[in-house]
Write a structure and sequence with these properties.
By secondary structure, the chain is of the alpha+beta class. It is built from six helices and three strands, in the order αβαααββαα. The longest helix has 25 residues. The mean pLDDT is 85.
Length: 158
């Protein structure tokens, strides 16, 4: 029976799924953003978020627990170093999944999953200036009048 077995099996055996999710988590901690299918991204979020929560408290026990999942020293250093320091005051929701559309060859839903506090593009998108048409039209006229004023002043001085 399948009672209380609600996670996505992703068409793989248990050992293959665990290895795949561990490899994807290592890549996520290394690159801060990876592109994959939507279902794998959702499964990776469930896999990664408890590891990041463990990394917020840097103890030997937590390092050993996370190492039992990832088996990669560089990923552990990265996770407990810069990732944990960035998410120290965040209560949860460490990852963001953004849908990219369908893959061309097999029509699979694609998405990228990223660590929330590491996306500089989203932070820059929030701070955008509003401009009006009037200021666009007024700017070239002002530059043209400044150019005509400066050129006669420069020629007599030479």
């Amino acid at each position: 029976m399948r009672h209380n077995k609600k996670f996505n099996h992703l068409g793989r055996k248990n050992s293959h799924r665990a290895a795949m999710l561990a490899n994807m988590a290592i890549s996520l901690f290394e690159h801060k953003r990876i592109t994959t299918t939507l279902q794998k991204a959702k499964a990776l979020r469930i896999y990664v978020e408890p590891l990041i929560t463990k990394a917020k408290e840097d103890t030997t026990a937590n390092r050993r627990v996370v190492f039992s999942y990832l088996q990669n020293k560089e990923a552990i250093k990265n996770l407990f170093g810069e990732v944990a320091s960035k998410v120290a005051n965040r209560p949860g929701g460490y990852t963001r999944i953004i849908k990219l559309g369908k893959r061309a060859n097999d029509d699979a839903d694609m998405a990228f999953i990223e660590l929330v506090d590491f996306d500089e593009n989203m932070a820059k998108a929030e701070v955008k200036k509003t401009r009006t048409r009037r200021s666009k039209k007024a700017a070239p006229k002002a530059e043209a009048t400044d150019a005509t004023v400066e050129t006669p002043a420069e020629t007599p001085a030479e």
